[in-house]
Every structure is written in C-alpha cells, then in structure tokens.
From TrEMBL:
One of its GO terms (molecular function) is pyrroline-2-carboxylate reductase activity. It comes from the Eukaryota. Gene3D superfamilies: NAD(P)-binding Rossmann-like Domain, ornithine cyclodeaminase, domain 1. GO terms for biological process: thyroid hormone metabolic process. Belongs to the ornithine cyclodeaminase/mu-crystallin family. Its EC number is 1.5.1.1, 1.5.1.25. It comes from Neogobius melanostomus. This is Ketimine reductase mu-crystallin.
Length: 377
C-alpha cells in the first residue's frame, strides 16, 4: 500500500509553530491536509504592528480543535463494516429514533431535490445524536433508470462532523454503507417479524441491494431454499449462479413468491410487482424499493391485508407510494417493536416498508470511523 505523509501543525504556549510529519494512507488525504493548512494559515494569521505575521487566538483554536478530514474509501468501508457489529448498532439507533427524544436523535425526513433532466433525486439525509456526539449527513443521488441502463441507481457519500466545532471529521464512501445498513435493517425486521420456522427466502430484483440482502439474510438465518427473480430470466440465472447452486432462478414473480416465508423486494419498479394474492398468509415482506410517493412495488391487496411496519412514520406518509396510494395504515415503527412499545405480529402477514434513514447512516458511519481510527493508530 502507498504511504503518504501529512503535515501536522501545533502551536505551543510561546506561540511558536511546530510541524510534524505523520503517516497517512492516501494521497487525497495529503492534498486535503495541505489545503486545510494553507487555508487555515491564510485565514487566521494577522499582521502585527511590526508587519510580521503573528498568530492570532483563532489559529490556536483552529489547529487545536479542527482535525483534517479522514477520507475513507469504498474498499476500506467494505473491510471495516461487519454485519455482526452493524446489526446491534442499528437496532439501538432505530430504538432511539422511535423514542423521539431530541437529546437522543434529531433526524428530519430527508430533503429531496429533483434532478428532472436525469430522472433522479438528490437526497440530503442529516442526523444528530447528541448523547453520542454523532453529527452526520449523507448525500445520495438515486435514479429511475431505463431498462438496460448500466448506470448506477444510487451513489452516496457520507460525512461525519464534529458537533461542537462544526468541522468535517470524515468523508467516506456511502455506497457500501447504503447497501449494508439497508440490508441489515431488513434482516432486523425479519428477525422480529418472520415466523420462527421460516424456510424459504425470495428476493425480487438482482441489483446491489439484492446482493447485500442475500449476504446478510444467509449470514444471519438458515433458509433451506433461496429463490430469485428478475424481469429477465438470464439475469436471474446469472445472479443465482453467482451466489451458488442452492439458489433457484424463477420465471415469474408468482412462482418465486408462492409458499415463501420471507420476501425481499429490491427493485427499481415504479408500479406494483408483488401481489397479495400470491403471498402466503403469515409471510414477512421487506419492501425496500419504491421510495417516492408515486412509486410502487406492492399492490393494494397486500398493503391492506398485511400489518404494516415502517422505519419512520413521518417518512412513510411523505415518501412511500405503497403506503400513500394504498391508503394502508401504519401499525408501528421498527424502533417501537425493538423498544417493546408495539408488538411484533409474527403470526400475521407483515410488511416492513423501508425507506432508509439518516440515523442508520449515522450509526454505520460512526462504526466505520471508530474502526478506521483504531486501525490507523
Ligand atoms: N429503503 C432503502 O433504504 C433504500 C432503498 N433503495 C432502493 O432500492 C431499490 C434497489 O436499489 P439497488 O439494488 O441499488 O438498484 P439496482 O439498480 O442495483 O437494482 C435494481 C433491480 O431492479 C430491477 N428492476 C428495474 N426496474 C424494474 C421493474 N420495473 N420491475 C422489476 N424490476 C426492476 C433491475 O433489473 C435490478 O435487478 C431502488 O429502488 C432504490 O432506490 C436503495 C437504497 C436504500
Ligand atoms: O436511504 C437511502 O439511502 C435511500 N433510500 C432510497 C434511495 C436511497
């Protein structure tokens, strides 16, 4: 691995400046550090009456308190984030979110800016967890791509900030976080809501989320059968083969979901693909796609026959086409079930409508950062 050196500047009581060299892992880090140092020097140096540069109080503040942002790349996030550690952190975060205690979590519904020309949206997802000292925001662009498009459906970046000073502590890849935290939250919903003897898992869709969902569901549970479906049989077969010979590619949604105990919908569809007619009574559905008020994955029959759980009530009634257009009632948030304030109806057909929350990104990013720091030491 390439090693770079970063320059660290310290100011002692006599206002003399010391520069220290420190090993860093990336050249971009090095560039950022240099920019930061030059910027902070230019901004905060003052001229004394003798015309010589003098260090003001502000630079002491800046150099002592502000740290150079860490840049944490996709492969690093990938190697640092493990479901075994992520899942408990997300359960805690969802529980705190549902307490609606502003000292625990402040997390508004994401702001979305339409990118009309590109059939997409920029989502801004801030979150502050005061008691834990976590201030975070994710920027995520997501798109309604035409069939056959090879462009990514989502691209995300996560930023962690120091809540006291407001400086950025870390900028990290958000794609792995988005893939893993979304799948982990679906697995939490299944852990709480699927029937205890669940044997058959079906995944509708064969993209990024399909893969992260397959990974976590097979790591955490022991299904006897896994089925996958995609609009193109070839894609479904290629996906099934890439996962192993125990995975079956199905021709139709109906064939894929009949008799399944757990169904994960991870498509980019904007119209219903899953009908309640085909869903076994008592099955659990984790519905991950359709995150705009006019997008659907599930039909009205399913939405009305199921007990509906969500990640956030506010987000559900603002962003979920499956909830808004079906008129289905939200029974509980996942966090309420975790907190024990709402029951988990395992015996009934359940839908967990996932939209994705900033608090999930914040908890995940802090975990990545903690591990990155302990490795860097
Ligand atoms: N709830 C959450 O927290 C999150 C939700 N998402 C959403 O999850 C969905 C999947 O995301 P990715 O796996 O990253 O996307 P992807 O582009 O990697 O995969 C999408 C899959 O949907 C299939 N598909 C596209 N149009 C379809 C249609 N009309 N009917 C049936 N299948 C169709 C594609 O063939 C592909 O298999 C997207 O809607 C995305 O916006 C993404 C991230 C987080
Ligand atoms: O939570 C998230 O990152 C997203 N939800 C829908 C698209 C992206």
């Amino acid at each position: 691995m390439k090693m770079f050196f970063s320059l660290h500047c310290e100011i002692n009581k006599s206002k003399t400046i010391r520069f220290k060299m420190k090993k860093k892992k990336s050249n971009l880090c090095y560039i950022l550090i240099s920019i930061n140092l030059i910027g902070c020097w230019n901004k905060y140096r003052t001229r004394s009456s003798t015309g010589k540069p003098e260090v003001s109080k502000s630079i002491r503040y800046q150099t002592n308190m502000a740290e150079t942002p860490a840049l944490i790349w996709e492969h690093e996030v990938c190697s640092l984030l493990k479901y075994g550690e992520l899942i408990p952190r997300l359960e805690t975060a969802l529980g705190k979110f549902s307490n609606r205690d502003s000292a625990e979590v402040i997390q508004p519904v994401r702001t979305t800016v339409p990118l009309q020309k590109h059939s997409g949206f920029l989502g801004v997802m801030p979150c502050y967890m005061e008691n834990e000292g976590i201030l975070c925001t994710k920027l995520v662009c997501f798109y309604k791509r035409p069939t056959g498009s090879t462009l990514p459906s989502t691209q995300a970046t996560v930023m962690l900030l120091d809540p006291e000073y407001g400086n950025v502590k870390a900028i990290m890849d958000g794609d792995v976080i988005t893939g893993m935290r979304t799948a982990a939250v679906s697995a939490i919903s299944a852990k709480l809501l699927m029937c205890p003897d669940a044997e058959i898992l079906t995944i509708l869709g064969t993209g990024k989320q399909a893969l992260s969902h397959y990974n976590v569901f097979t790591e955490v549970f022991s299904f006897k059968e896994v089925r996958v479906w995609s609009r193109s049989k070839d894609k479904a077969e290629a996906f099934a083969q890439s996962l192993g010979h125990h995975v079956t590619a199905c021709e139709s949604v109906e064939e894929a979901v009949r008799g399944a105990d757990v169904i994960v919908t991870v498509t980019r569809s904007t119209v219903p693909v899953l009908s309640g007619q085909w869903v076994k009574p008592g099955a659990h559905v984790a519905a991950v796609g359709a995150c705009r008020p006019d997008w659907r994955e599930l039909d009205d029959t399913l939405m009305k026959q199921a007990v509906v759980y969500v990640d956030s009530r506010e987000a559900a009634v603002t962003e979920s086409g499956d909830i808004i257009l079906s008129g289905a009632e939200v029974f509980a948030e996942m966090g309420e079930v975790i907190n024990g304030t709402k029951p988990a109806h395992r015996e009934k057909t359940t839908v967990f409508k996932s939209l994705g929350l900033g608090v999930e990104d914040a908890a995940s990013a802090q975990l990545v950062f903690d591990k990155w720091k302990s490795k860097a030491m």
